[in-house]
Structure formats: structure tokens, C-alpha cells
Write a structure and sequence with these properties.
Layout: E1 2-9, E2 18-21, E3 32-36, H1 43-53, E4 83-91, E5 103-111, E6 116-120, E7 123-125, H2 127-137, E8 146-147, H3 151-157, H4 160-170, H5 174-323, H6 328-389, H7 396-421, H8 426-452, H9 456-519, H10 521-616, H11 619-627, H12 641-660, H13 668-730, E9 734-742, E10 747-755, H14 769-786, E11 791-795, H15 803-816, E12 821-825, H16 829-833, E13 837-845, E14 848-855, H17 856-872
Parallel strand pairs: 3-12, 3-13, 8-11, 11-12
Antiparallel strand pairs: 1-2, 1-4, 4-5, 5-6, 6-7, 9-10, 13-14
Helix pairs in contact: 3-14, 5-10, 5-12, 5-13, 6-7, 6-9, 7-8, 8-9, 10-11, 13-14, 14-15
């Protein structure tokens, strides 16, 4: 058995439906899944959800104060929810849970009004059913199936009595405790019932003796009553049979009328169906006619549009024939205007061309000045080189350090000069200027050093060369700025020239067009009229097609109208038939009502007679009469009215005799029999309860022995495993569990003993925080090793462990994961590394948790494939 899936919806910060899928394990057998994320994102809410769905009742354990605290409370952007629901999907293929399902789904819901419910596979159950089912499957519902923050240390801090509860679940005797409690409650209930039964029997005995005497007298009276019932039976049989025969005749008549009405009703329904079909067919015809009428309307509009277009074309043709083309005087005026504009444009082009030539000449002059500056910079560069290679004075310092420093500065100076020659924009020049300034500072520093060493001649030469270089750089900067401005002006002039040339060409083109029109106006006039006539013919052809389609549609619409009239006539005929049939049914119902009145009259008489029989003879006799078990008129030939009168006289005499015999309660015998029957029943019940009480006491003693045996057996195993894991975690020491029996209270408690290697501690309260955490982890691992839970949720139990102990924790966890599935909420990287599945919890939206997941094995495989591909390339 293992946990397949966990679904949360509306639980705390999980507002949306969230599903955590846990597979059976990784390929290498690991069954460890980790849930990670920053603090405050809702990781621990997952552990609370598992604890809650397993039946946790304590709101404090769920970190809440009231039921509403576990329902999503809403945020600024998302409204609060009305309920919370958690479902736990368990694989039950091994039938560990005694249910005939391969998958068991445990669900719990709670609503904001406080109503809650538990479900197993969507079937409502009690919380007790969940608890018993978990106990049978070996779950530690309240102790070690879900270990939350602080609960690990709580095991050590708990009292010995509280620890006993943990070990009862850990040793697997919880289910026996549930059975024992159930048997104890039954035993107590049985003893209470036995006491009440004895009290009731004591009260019944005097009453039973009195009833016995009264019953004897009632039996003598019963003989007279029996004779009376015999005569009454004969009398009422005759009267009941005669009345029943008359009622049967009326019922037969009613059935015939009802059959006739049913037949007529079916015919009416058939007519109604035919009417509906005709109505639908009529509506269909009308709908199709409506579509065709809309198409006719559209075609009429199209035809009118073509007529309008033809009228416009005919007007244009007449106008062209009368006008004979555009007025030549107007064209002549346009020609003169365009020629004047061309002359103005030619003048502007010449002026701009002259200005452009002057600017380009200025650019050439500036370029020549830049070349001269380059030559001068080259000369200064040579001087600097000569200065750097000149013999120095002043001892070893001048020969080594100064020569080396001058050489470095000369190299940087040469680099700046070479970059000045390749400058493309002003930003580069500014950068070089800063470099030159820095170099000048270094030269001044070097000059000061030379002055101190007495070499004033080199100092003066260096300062002079540096001043000249600065002047050259400043001059070149001014020339570059000027060239940039001139290039911008040249670009604007070229753009304006291009615009004027395009304008000139456009004017020339229009002028040529005017001259062409002046020469060929007659030919164009004929071409325009020809085009108009062609368009007219096209419109006429389209108009003819529209008119033909209109004619077809109108003919079809006329045919459809005739069809509609025929269907309408058929519909009216059916409606008339329907009305006639309704009148016939109404007539039949009136006759039926008359028969019903007669039937009710006989039924009323029969009911009155039955009520009289019940009072005089009893309810049973009425049933016999209805079943035909008594005398009927048809079963006694020759029964006359005189026989009826004779029976009436005998009945009156017997009734008078009963009145004279005294007022004995007719229910005495019945009460005596009931009292005797109850007395006998209670006596038997008292004996059965005594036997049941003894059996239950034996069962409790047997369960006590079984609990003690199994608890001691598993307790010893847990103690051994506790010592094993304690030594493994602390690399030595000793730990064990001690069971202390209290003879006065007949209760046992559990003490935890732990001795660290190299230390003498008397109690576990003396342990440090880290030592307590390791001790608690060792105890938890011992329990899981002896009685493994199908799955276990650990909420940051490794938070207090250092790196070395985290590795030990992970190794033990992997060994236990072969039998127990672990879901870990952790921040520990070592724990994450040993997980096959990783869920990340985040809050993209404030107050709402969201999941991200990755299978680490798939990620490792992907990284390996990428490495292999890189090696291959």
C-alpha cells in the first residue's frame, strides 16, 4: 500500500484545486518525495491537510482556533470560499485495508456553517469508521503517520502516560484497544440492561397473578361471545355479499365507460399530433416564403440600382458628346503656369549647387590642415623617441627607473597619437582627450622627478613636446567639429536638391501631359465615350440577369402560396375533427360521472357496513369477507329475508345476555397473555444477558492478554532498534526504553533512557536542542523499522540537524523507504538530493499557494543526455 495522490481544494492557502501525485517509487526503489519552498508559502498546510483527512479533531494541532480557520479566507483579489475538502488516494492492491477496492479514497469536507462529513470512495461514513479502518491498516493516525514541526521534540517532552499512547499505536495494538473499548461498552450496557430487566420482572409478578384470575372469568364470557360472533358472521356475510354484488355491477359499468373514454382520448391525441405536424409544415412553408421574399426585395433594390447607374451613364455619354473634351484655353493657361514654376525651380537648383560646391571646398581645406597636423604629430613622436633613447645621468636610478618610465609614457603617447588618426566621432575624441590629460599629469610628475635628479634639460623638452601635442589635439578637435557641421549642411543641401529635382521632373511630366492632351484631344474624347458605352452594356446585361431571377422567384413564390393554402385547409379540417372528438369525450365523461356517483354511494354503504362489522365482530372478519372466506349470497342457495330477520333476533338475545353477565373487560385475557408473554421473554432475556456478560468478560480478558503480549513483544523490538539508531546517529552511546508498571492504578508508563558517548546525563531533559532532535529522530526511525506505516509525512524534522547528521538522517531514511513511503517537507539540500520527486510551493499571488513539480531522475537523465551530445559535437 502507498499514497498515490493528494487533492486539496479550499484548504487554508490552497484556494484552487491542487493535486500532488506520488508514484510508487523511482527506478532505483526510492520512495521519498520532497516538498520545498520559502517560509510562509504554505508547505506545512500540506501536512495539516493529511492530518485533517485522517480524522484529526484538535484545531490546535492544525494551527487554528476555529473551524473556519482551515477554509480559505480570501485575499484582496480573490473571494473567500465556502468549504474546504481534502482527498487521500491510497493504492490498496495488497488489500491491507479490509475493503474490496484496489484504490481507497479517504475524503473529508467542512463547510463555513460548521457542517462536516467524512467519505470513503465518495460514500458518507462516520469518523469512527475512518479511525477503525486506519487502525486495521496499521496507520498511526494521531502520532507518527504525520510528524509536524515541533512534534519530534514533543515525544521527549511528553509525560510517560502520553508516551504510552504513541507506543500503543507503534506496537500495533491500537486496533485491539478499539475492540476492547467496544466490548467494555457492550459489557457495561449489558449489565445495565440486566439490572433493569430484573427490576421489571419483580414489578410484573403481582400484576400477573391478578390478571390470571380475571382471565378465567373472561373465558366463561367468551363462550357467549363466540356464539354471538357465529350468528353475526352469518348475518353480515349475507348483507356484505349482497351490497358487494351491486357495487361490482356498478364497477363493471365504470370500467366500460373508462375504456371508451381512453379509446377516444387516444384518438384525440392522434389528431393533436397530426395538427402539430401540419402546423409545423405550415410554419416551414412560411419560413421558406419569407426567405424568398427577402431575396426578391434584395433583387428589386439591385434592379433599381442598375437603372440609376444606367441613367447616370447615359447622362455622362450625352455630356461627353455635347462637350467634346476639355477647353483648350484652360489647358494653355495650365501650360504657361507650369513653365513659370519650372524656371523658378531651375534657379533654386543652381543656387544650391553653388553653395554645395563652396562647402565641399571648405571640407577639402580642412582635410589638408588635418594632414599637416598629422605630419607635425609624427615629428613630435620622433622627438619623444629620441628623448627616450638619449643617455641619462644621475646614477643607477636615472638609468633604470627613469628610462623605463619614459619608455612606458612614450608607448602610451604613441598609442594615443595612432588612435587620433582613426577617430570616427566626437565621443572617441573626448575619451582620447581624457587619456591625454592623464598622461600629461604623469609627464609633470616625471619632470618633477627629473628636476630633483638635476636633469632640467630633458624636463624642459618633455614639457615643450607635451604642450605642442595638446595644441595639436585641440586644433584637430576644432577641425573635426567644423567638418561635422559642414557635412550636416552638405547633407541638407543634397536633400533639398533631390526634392527640387523630383519636383522639376513632376512639373515636366504634367507639362508633357498637357501638350499631349492638346494634340490628341479628339482621340481621347472618342475613347471616353467608347468606355462609357461598354459599361452601359455591362449594366444592361446584369440588369437582365436580375430581372430573370426575379421572375423565377415570383413564379416559385406563387407555387409555394398555393401549397400553403392547401396545408392551411387540411389544418382547419383536422381542427374541426379535433373539436368534434372533444365534444364526444366530454359527453362520455358526463355519463362516467353519473356512474361514479352511484359507485360512491355503494362504496359509502359498504364502508359504513365494514365499520359496523369492525365494531361488532372485528377487523379480521372484514378481511375474511373481502377474501371470500365467509358466507356470500351466491354460496347459500335459498337464503331468504326471513332468515335474515331470525338472525337479527338471535343476535339481540345474545347481546342482552352479555350485558346481564357483568362488565368484564374484554381485554383482560389479551392483557394477561401479553403480560405472561413479556414475563417469559424478560426471564429468557435475563438468562441470555447473564451469558452474554460472561462471554464479554472473557473476550476482554483475552484482548487484555493479547494486547499485553503484543505490546511487550513490539516494545522490546522498538527498544532494540532505538538503541541501534541512537548509536548510529551519535556514533556511540546507549539508549533504551523502560516500561514501568503501576500496581495501584494498573497502568503502565514509558521512560526514555539515553546516554551520550563521553557524557554522563541522568535524564533526557539534560540534552541540548540538537541532541534532543537526534534522539527523537532515532526513536521515530525505530518505530518505523519495527511497525512501518504505509506512508509517513515529516514536516521539517531535519531542521535542527547539521550537515553531517543530515547525511546520516538521509542514509537511514533511504533504508526505511523500502517499506515506508516518505513525504518530506524540508529546507535541507541533503534530504532533497535523496528524493526522486520534488514539489515546490510558492505564492505568485499573495495568500494563495501554488505548486511546481519536477522528477529528479528525469532531470538527471536530461542533463546526462545534454552532456553526451556536447561530447559528441
Amino acid at each position: 500500500m502507498y499514497l498515490k495522490k493528494l487533492e486539496l481544494q479550499g484548504f487554508k492557502s490552497f484556494a484552487r484545486k491542487t493535486t500532488l501525485n506520488f508514484e510508487e517509487g523511482s527506478r532505483d526503489g526510492r520512495r521519498i518525495a520532497a516538498i520545498v519552498g520559502p517560509n510562509g508559502t504554505g508547505k506545512s498546510n500540506i501536512a495539516d491537510a493529511v492530518r485533517w483527512v485522517l480524522g484529526e479533531q484538535s484545531l490546535k494541532a492544525l494551527r487554528g482556533k476555529k473551524t473556519e480557520d482551515i477554509i480559505f479566507a480570501g485575499t484582496d483579489k480573490k473571494a473567500r470560499l465556502g468549504r474546504a475538502e481534502v482527498s487521500l488516494y491510497l493504492d490498496n492492491s495488497d488489500q491491507r485495508m479490509p475493503l474490496d477496492y484496489s484504490e481507497v479514497v479517504l475524503s473529508r469536507r467542512v463547510f463555513r456553517d460548521g457542517e462536516s462529513e467524512y467519505l470513503i470512495n465518495q460514500n458518507p461514513v462516520r469518523r469512527l469508521d475512518i479511525v477503525e479502518l486506519l487502525a486495521k491498516a496499521g496507520f498511526g493516525q494521531a502520532t507518527y503517520a504525520v510528524i509536524g514541526q515541533g512534534m519530534v521534540d514533543a515525544v521527549l517532552s511528553a509525560t510517560p502516560v502520553e508516551r504510552k499512547v504513541l507506543f500503543e499505536e507503534a506496537t500495533g495494538v491500537k486496533k485491539y484497544y478499539l475492540k476492547r473499548d467496544r466490548a467494555a461498552r457492550k459489557l457495561e450496557h449489558t449489565r445495565d440492561n440486566l439490572t433493569r430487566i430484573k427490576d421489571i420482572v419483580t414489578e410484573l409478578e403481582p400484576r400477573l397473578r391478578i390478571l390470571k384470575r380475571q382471565a378465567k372469568r373472561a373465558q366463561e364470557r367468551g363462550k357467549v361471545e363466540e356464539e354471538l360472533r357465529e350468528f353475526q358472521g352469518q348475518y353480515y356475510s349475507f348483507v356484505y355479499g349482497d351490497l358487494n354484488q351491486k357495487l361490482k355491477t356498478v364497477l363493471d359499468k365504470t370500467a366500460r365507460h373508462q375504456a371508451n373514454i381512453d379509446q377516444e382520448t387516444k384518438e384525440l391525441e392522434r389528431l393533436q399530433s397530426e395538427i402539430k405536424a401540419l402546423e409545423q409544415a405550415t410554419r416551414d412553408v412560411l419560413g421558406e416564403d419569407q426567405e424568398k421574399q427577402e431575396e426578391i426585395t434584395a433583387l428589386e433594390e439591385k434592379r433599381l440600382d442598375f437603372h440609376q447607374k444606367l441613367a447616370v451613364l447615359e447622362g455622362k455619354i450625352e455630356a461627353e458628346e455635347e462637350r467634346g473634351g476639355e477647353d483648350p484655353q484652360i489647358l494653355k493657361a495650365k501650360e504657361v503656369s507650369f513653365k513659370e514654376e519650372l524656371q523658378k525651380i531651375e534657379i533654386q537648383i543652381k543656387e544650391l549647387g553653388k553653395e554645395e560646391a563652396e562647402l565641399k571646398q571648405s571640407l577639402e581645406e580642412d582635410a589638408s590642415q588635418k594632414a599637416e597636423l598629422d605630419q607635425q604629430l609624427a615629428m613630435e613622436r620622433g622627438k619623444l623617441k629620441e628623448l627616450g633613447s638619449a643617455p641619462q645621468k644621475g646614477g643607477q636610478f636615472q638609468a633604470d627607473y627613469l628610462k623605463k618610465e619614459v619608455k612606458i609614457i612614450l608607448g602610451e603617447q604613441a598609442e594615443i597619437l595612432s588612435k587620433i588618426d582613426s577617430i570616427q566621432d566626437l565621443s572617441e575624441l573626448e575619451s582620447l582627450k581624457q587619456m591625454a590629460t592623464e598622461l600629461q599629469k604623469r609627464l609633470r610628475k616625471l619632470a618633477d622627478l627629473l628636476e630633483k635628479n638635476g636633469d632640467t634639460e630633458i624636463q624642459k623638452k618633455l614639457l615643450k613636446i607635451q604642450g605642442q601635442i595638446n595644441q595639436f589635439v585641440q586644433r584637430k578637435e576644432e577641425l573635426d567639429q567644423k567638418q561635422s557641421d559642414l557635412k550636416i549642411r552638405v547633407a541638407k543641401i543634397e536633400q533639398k536638391l533631390e526634392f527640387l529635382v523630383d519636383s522639376r521632373e513632376e512639373k515636366r511630366s504634367k507639362l508633357d501631359e498637357i501638350e499631349l492632351r492638346l494634340g490628341k484631344e479628339d482621340q481621347e474624347e472618342k475613347s471616353v465615350i467608347t468606355n462609357l458605352l461598354r459599361r452601359k452594356r455591362d449594366y444592361q446585361n446584369q440588369l437582365k440577369e436580375v430581372e430573370n431571377r426575379l421572375k423565377d422567384l415570383k413564379d416559385e413564390l406563387s407555387s409555394r402560396n398555393r401549397e400553403y393554402q392547401n396545408k392551411r385547409a387540411g389544418l382547419l379540417e383536422k381542427e374541426r375533427s379535433y373539436q368534434v372528438k372533444q365534444q364526444e369525450i366530454e359527453k362520455a365523461r358526463i355519463e362516467m360521472n353519473q356512474v361514479e356517483v352511484e359507485k360512491v354511494r355503494f362504496e359509502t354503504k359498504l364502508e359504513d357496513l365494514e365499520e359496523e362489522i369492525r365494531k361488532e365482530v372485528g377487523e379480521g372478519f372484514v378481511g375474511e369477507l373481502k377474501d371470500g372466506g365467509k358466507l356470500q349470497p351466491s354460496s347459500k342457495q335459498g337464503f331468504e329475508l326471513s332468515d335474515k330477520v331470525e338472525l337479527e333476533e338471535k343476535i339481540v338475545k345474545l347481546k342482552r345476555k352479555l350485558e346481564l353477565s357483568g362488565g368484564i373487560d374484554p381485554e383482560v385475557i389479551k392483557e394477561y397473555e401479553e403480560c405472561q408473554e413479556r414475563y417469559d421473554f424478560l426471564t429468557r432475556q435475563s438468562e441470555d444477558l447473564g451469558e452474554a456478560s460472561g462471554s464479554l468478560a472473557k473476550v476482554i480478558r483475552k484482548l487484555d492478554g493479547l494486547i499485553k503480549k503484543q505490546f511487550n513483544e513490539y516494545f522490546e523490538k522498538i527498544s532494540v532498534e532505538f538503541d541501534h539508531y541512537f548509536k548510529k546517529l551519535f556514533e556511540g552511546g546507549k539508549a533504551n526504553l523502560v516500561l514501568i508498571e503501576d500496581e495501584e492504578t494498573e497502568q503502565s508508563t514509558v521512560e526514555i533512557k539515553a546516554h551520550l558517548p563521553g557524557k554522563r546525563l541522568k535524564t533526557i531533559d539534560s540534552l541540548s536542542g540538537g541532541e534532543r532532535a537526534l534522539t527523537s529522530v532515532a526513536l521515530l526511525f525505530a518505530i518505523l523499522a519495527v511497525n512501518p506505516s504505509p506512508f509517513c509525512v515529516l514536516d521539517e524534522v531535519d531542521a535542527a540537524l547539521d550537515e553531517a547528521n543530515s547525511k546520516k538522517f538521509g542514509e537511514i531514511l533511504e533504508s526505511l523507504a523500502e517499506r515506508t513511503q516518505f513525504i518530506l517537507i524540508t529546507h535541507n539540500r541533503e534530504t532533497m538530493r535523496r528524493s526522486y520527486l520534488l514539489y515546490g510551493v510558492t505564492m505568485e499571488e499573495g495568500g494563495v499557494s501554488k505548486l511546481l513539480s519536477i522528477k529528479l531522475e528525469e532531470g538527471e537523465e536530461l542533463v546526462k543526455q545534454r552532456k553526451d551530445r556536447r561530447k559528441g559535437t
